[in-house]
Design goal:
With about 280 residues, the protein is mostly helical. The protein is about 80% helix and about 5% strand. It has a two-stranded antiparallel sheet.
């Protein structure tokens, strides 16, 4: 009951308020007119909405493709025992301790110095006026900031794998790839699910870093869905912002549910294979 009450306070009540805002035309908080689904229709008919949505989904896909493998690789390379463990874990935790609004400021300085160095080598890296270069800068910035989360989650799970598994693999002469694929990766599946969902949601809702870095430019090439929503809020367009928020919420919920369902089906298939193999073994005995 305390959990239900807390969830209702932090999630259900605000969601009801946002839905109420989205079906009214609000002039002030005390003056509003019922419009039904008009704001939803307006948002869904907007080309800018679909452009920013596609851009956000593409950014999330890039982030997952880059950060998940890098995070797993770094987690596997950290020693399980010894003095280096604390050094590695503390070093990996440092980017997570930097406030979001400071990330872009740090990378402003780093990118400007890098631009000067690259220009000496004859490489023109114009991250302010070249959209492709701005995308590279944002992806690098996000990778530096959030890969540590995946590393820490994967490493925490790797340390719980019993040494008997590795001993059995060594006796069987298993290669490093076989150890990873048949022992370590299955054990990390639950934390990888958590990492993928967290990184998808965070990257899909990215706002502060790209906005502070280049304000969605150049020519709106890095304007994401959350930034378009932020503009409505700043402009006091509460009703369109509420409708956009609900659509935003449905997209995140749909992708999350689809991924979770696909993973559950995959795990169910693995369990069925294990049962069949076990029954075949009993039959042979």
């Amino acid at each position: 009951m305390p959990a239900v009450l807390l969830l209702g306070f932090v999630a259900v009540i605000p969601l009801i308020m946002v839905v109420n805002f989205s079906i009214h035309d609000i002039f002030t908080l005390k003056s509003k007119v019922w419009v039904g689904l008009e704001w939803y229709k307006e948002v869904l008919r907007s080309s800018r909405f679909w452009e920013t949505t596609g851009r956000s989904l593409f950014f999330s896909a890039i982030i997952l493709i880059i950060e998940i493998p890098i995070g797993i690789a770094i987690a596997l390379s950290i020693p399980k025992k010894g003095a280096l463990v604390a050094v590695c874990l503390v070093s990996m935790s440092l980017p997570l301790l930097v406030p979001w609004n400071m990330i872009a400021m740090i990378w402003h300085v780093f990118l400007e110095k890098s631009r000067i160095i690259l220009s000496v080598a004859g490489i023109n890296f114009d991250w302010k006026l070249n959209g492709f270069h701005t995308w590279i800068a944002i992806v690098l910035m996000d990778t530096w900031h959030w890969t540590s989360l995946i590393v820490l989650l994967c490493y925490s799970r790797l340390t719980t794998i019993p040494t008997a598994f590795y001993q059995a693999a060594a006796i069987d002469g298993a290669s490093l790839w076989n150890v990873f694929y048949f022992i370590e990766l299955p054990k990390m599946r639950s934390v990888l699910l958590m990492a993928i969902l967290l990184r998808f949601i965070d990257s899909f809702m990215v706002y502060t870093e790209p906005f502070t870095l280049n304000a969605g430019g150049p020519r709106s090439s890095t304007t994401f869905l959350a930034m378009e929503l932020g503009r409505d809020v700043v402009s006091y367009n509460f009703s369109p912002a509420a409708a956009r928020s609900i659509i935003y919420f449905i997209i995140v919920l749909t992708v999350t549910w689809t991924f979770k369902t696909a993973l559950a089906m995959h795990e169910s298939g693995d369990n069925n294979k294990l049962k069949i193999a076990s029954q075949n073994g009993k039959t042979k005995d």
